[in-house]
Design a protein that fits this description.
Helix 7 crosses helix 14 and helix 8 runs antiparallel to helix 9. The chain has helices at 15-28, 32-43, 48-58, 62-71, 96-106, 148-159, 193-201, 203-213, 225-234, 255-262, 264-278, 295-307, 339-346, 375-387, 389-393, 426-432, 480-494, 500-517, 523-539, 543-548, 550-558, 561-564, 578-581, 583-588; strands spanning 4-6, 12-14, 83-88, 119-124, 136-138, 141-143, 178-180, 241-246, 282-287, 324-329, 370-374, 403-410, 416-421, 438-443, 449-452, 470-475. Helices cover 41% and strands 13% of the residues. The chain is α/β, with parallel strands linked by helices and 599 residues long. The protein is built from 24 helices and 16 strands. Bound molecules: flavin mononucleotide (FMN) and iron/sulfur cluster (SF4). Flavin mononucleotide (FMN) binds at residues 217-221, 223, 245, 247-249, 335, 337-339, 372-374, 377, 542-544. The site of iron/sulfur cluster has 14 residues, from helix 18 and helix 20.
Length: 599
């Protein structure tokens, strides 16, 4: 007889139902996040019984499955609503007013499920829709271009319990928004062209071309792609792996979304070329959970490529050239974009960054040599295999060959995707996207650099301002301190918690900024914030902590007035407002005379 377990809403879930969902999910992929997602979709949460069943089925310790569920913000141990809404809280694709409006309209407390289980509403970090205005995810599917009218439509659809599949299709339209195409996006790369060129030139010759091209990683750090491939190829191991990093969690970045939507063949082609060069049989595309809506389409591209002999065994008829790609979908953790955390996630663990060295090229997935590259890097590599290094080097600067695809958002008339040769000035980008009266530009997302208009002639390239792709524009009317607070909140929320300087430091930074914004900060707070920001930057374990205080430090350096104009005039103010805390007591005792106040 099948046992049952009781959910916190009192519903019984039969063990055989759990097992059949797990078995069905495992028939597609045994990746833990995939199985947990399937369970949550069916039962709206991961119950203790589900944890036990998954652990038994996949032969993983329960403690590991439990830790994974706790770690990823898209997984929940208590039931979500049948319509689970997550509002982006990014400065470009979020709008707290619309979030409040929907909560009010549906009578939902933010962060909770409504008592009847119909709907839950929460916030989430940037969902990569920054060129589409305010946006949310409903059961994981994005809806953008939100305004009060759209909120009302969504509320009605939920109240009338219209199944998501029957919601008007136009609500879900996400466009490519390519405003300026260059080397890669002008693309005439037909599926298989890059691979054929690689086979004609040979794996070693192609590696030479990639090295010669000067291609540097587009995920942010800018390491030489050819050298990375060469180190991996030279490393001894039982197997080698290719991983495409499509986690794209940096607020304001959405260019990988567009590449995967419109140029997936080039990305998969680049991965397959890399596999031939390093001798890998297996590849993974790690897709951020927010882009799950792209999954069916990407799976179709993989199926087509297998049918065309571009994946599988004996690719393009070459004996021994065997390679295939699996897509793993994340579950709402920015830190999983860090390559070693990503690999941990692929290995069914929490996304905690590893100690480096060793680097993934020597000890990556399952401890074996692994190349991790960004989506755009693989697409560029496919083009280089086809057209050669000289073609690529013709664009860009000495140390930054080729082009960069930018995600432009914020206060501008034409947000979207812009591809330029490296070396383009910020001023040019601002002119092209119709930005006027610009106060500041955040280059490379919150982890990058904040500059003011005195620096708009600086250039986008590794020699000057490097960026993974995010350009956020802030007009003169923006409250820049609110922007910095938003970024501080982002880092405090996304810190994986592994090391103290980042876990505690990011929260303290956020709190001190709130104190200053509330008009309770003093010069002492500014000095403390600077000290703390330096500590977080220099003492944190991984790139997240090492860059988390950049917005605060940049803003203090370039825009000191946004802090100074809010300072209280005393030497010291406690975090806690004692007088305000006594308000409840004053009301209970019906006193509001001078003696009932501290000041
Ligand atoms: C907190 C953090 C988040 C990151 N997120 C991404 C990401 O979303 N996509 C990406 O390609 N690289 C990301 N990176 C950089 C990766 O660790 C890695 O350097 C990159 O994937 C290598 O590919 P590339 O050489 O092609 O740039 C992130 C790094 C850190 C520290
Ligand atoms: S720096 Fe932050 S994100 Fe990185 S390991 Fe430490 S706590 Fe985790």
């Amino acid at each position: 007889m099948s046992k049952t377990s009781i959910t916190s809403q009192g519903n019984a879930i039969r063990t055989d139902s759990l097992r059949s969902v797990i078995a069905l999910a495992c028939a597609e992929s045994r990746h833990l996040l995939h199985v947990l997602y399937a369970l949550q979709r069916q039962f709206l949460h991961i119950s203790d019984a589900a944890l036990r069943e998954v652990a038994a089925y996949l032969d993983i310790p329960i403690s590991q499955v439990d830790a994974v569920v706790e770690f990823y913000s898209f997984l929940h141990k208590s039931p979500r609503g049948r319509f689970d809404i997550m509002f982006s809280n990014c400065t470009s694709c979020g709008d707290p007013e619309l979030l409040r409006l929907l909560c009010q309209r549906l009578d939902v407390v933010e962060g909770e499920s409504r008592a009847d289980g119909l709907v839950s509403i929460d916030q989430t970090s940037c969902i990569g829709m920054c060129d589409h205005g305010a946006a949310l995810l409903v059961n994981g599917t994005p809806i953008a271009h939100l305004d009060a009218g759209m909120i009302e439509r969504i509320a009605i659809l939920i109240e009338t319990e219209r199944p998501l599949a029957d919601w008007p299709a136009e609500l879900f339209v996400v466009t490519g928004n390519i405003r300026r195409a260059g080397l890669l996006l002008n693309d005439g790369l037909a599926a298989g062209d890059g691979l054929r060129a690689m086979l004609a030139c040979g794996a070693t010759g192609t590696l030479g071309e990639v090295i010669q091209s000067g291609l540097r990683g587009r995920g942010g750090a800018g390491f030489s792609t050819g050298m990375k491939w060469q180190f991996c190829r030279e490393e001894r191991g039982r197997a080698r792996y290719v991983v495409c990093n499509a986690d794209e969690g940096e607020p304001g970045t959405f260019k990988d979304r567009v590449l995967l939507h419109s140029h997936a063949d080039a990305v998969f082609e680049g991965m397959t070329i890399c596999a031939a060069v390093i001798g890998a049989k297996q590849g993974f595309l790690y897709l951020r959970g927010e882009y799950r809506y792209l999954l069916p389409q990407l799976q179709m591209v993989l199926v087509r490529r297998r049918e065309m002999g571009l994946l599988g065994t004996g690719i393009l008829g070459k004996i021994g050239f065997d390679f295939d790609i699996e897509i793993a979908v994340g579950a709402g953790a920015y830190i999983c974009g860090e390559e070693s955390a990503l690999i941990e996630s692929l290995e069914n663990k929490r996304g905690i960054p590893r100690n480096r060295p060793p680097f993934p090229v020597t000890h990556g997935y399952l401890g074996q040599p692994t190349v991790v590259n960004n989506v755009e890097t693989f697409a560029a590599a496919a083009h280089i295999a086809l057209r050669g290094s000289a073609w690529f080097r013709k664009s860009g600067t000495d140390e930054s060959a080729g082009s960069k695809i930018l995600s432009v958002s914020g206060d501008c008339a034409k947000p979207g995707i812009y591809e330029y040769p490296f070396g383009v000035s910020i001023r040019q980008v601002l002119d092209d996207c119709g930005a006027q009266d610009v106060q500041a530009v955040q280059i490379g997302g919150p982890a990058g650099t904040l500059i003011g208009n005195a620096e708009f002639d600086r250039r986008l390239c590794f020699e000057d301002l490097s960026t993974g792709g995010s350009i956020m524009v802030f007009g003169e009317k923006r409250d820049l301190l609110a922007v910095i607070r938003n970024f501080a909140h982002f880092f405090a929320h996304e810190s994986c918690g592994f090391c103290t300087p980042c876990r505690v430091g990011t929260t303290l930074l956020r709190k001190r900024l709130s104190k200053i914004a509330a008009g309770r900060g003093t010069q002492y707070d500014l000095d403390e914030m600077k000290r703390l920001a330096a500590l977080v930057k220099h003492r944190s374990h991984c790139g997240l902590g090492q860059t988390a205080s950049n917005p605060v430090l940049d803003a203090m350096h370039r825009f000191p007035h946004i802090f100074e104009q809010r300072l209280a005039q005393s030497d010291f103010e406690p975090y806690f407002d004692l007088d305000a805390a006594l308000e409840e007591a004053r009301q209970v005792t019906h006193r509001n005379d001078a003696a009932a106040h501290l000041e």
